[in-house]
Predict the structure.
Amino acid sequence: MIIRLIAMSRSIGIDDPRNFKAFSVRIEGALDDAAQAELLGRIAVRHDREHAWISEVALRDWPALKSEAWWQDGLTGMIAAVQKFGWIDNESRSIRAHIEHAP
């Protein structure tokens, strides 16, 4: 799944939600630091230039997906699979995602 931060509309979307083996944040378009921080703040518990720690709760409660059993089960499986790499912060219940930029 790719979490899309869309500069033009100042919105957040999810592409390829069934792909739990690919997890990243894509910033699409130009955002100044304040706008990027505001958008990331909607879904991330913390972030820097390269990584965002995405809230598990935000993903589980994603409006279009939260009632889907495959979504909840997929998130549970993804979290279990990446735990061994240190990509889960159990205290903040967040998942590490690489940030990429697209024009």
Q: What stands out?
A: Residues 83 and 89 are 9 Å apart (CA to CA).
